[in-house]
């Protein structure tokens, strides 16, 4: 699939882009690389590579690790050392602010 490239233009909320740029920088990539990874994964799976739902996961479900990862990436919580600290950080984050 390597070869010629093309430019695309995506409209995105400025704050959302800034948050994405910060997250991807911590992961050692830029927005363009992250988008390419997303598209390749979509092609591998033949669809969106995650569940799309109107119902956000409740605390205590599979969505909590993702919520924690986003909270750490956005500087809203610290990375926990153990499960108890993980649960305390998530509870504190939900009490103090929305993601």
Q: Could you explain how this protein is built, in words?
A:
The protein has two domains: 12-50; 55-99, no CATH class. The protein is built from four helices and no strands. It has helices at residues 14-26, 31-45, 63-73, 83-96. The longest helix has 15 residues, at 31-45. Helix 3 packs across helix 4 (83-96). It has 99 residues and is mainly alpha-helical. Helices cover 54% and strands 0% of the residues.
Q: Helix- and strand-based class?
A: mainly alpha
Count of the separate structural domains: 2
Shape: elongated
As an assembly, this protein is single chain
- The helix count comes to 4
- Please bin the fraction of helical residues: 40-55%
Quote the distance from N terminus to C terminus: 37 Å
Main β sheet profile? none
Mean pLDDT: 78
User: Secondary-structure element order, as H and E?
Assistant: HHHH
The radius of gyration over CA amounts to 16 Å
Strand portion, in percent? under 5%
> Strand tally, please?
0
């Amino acid at each position: 699939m390597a070869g010629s490239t093309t430019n695309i233009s995506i409209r995105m909320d400025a704050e959302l882009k800034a948050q994405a740029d910060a997250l991807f920088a911590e992961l050692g990539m830029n927005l363009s690389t992250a988008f390419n990874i997303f598209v390749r994964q979509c092609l591998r799976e033949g669809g969106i590579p995650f569940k799309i739902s109107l119902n956000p996961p409740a605390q205590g479900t599979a969505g909590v690790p993702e919520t924690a990862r986003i909270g750490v990436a956005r500087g809203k919580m610290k990375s926990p050392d153990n499960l108890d600290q993980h649960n305390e950080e998530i509870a504190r984050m939900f009490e103090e602010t929305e993601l």
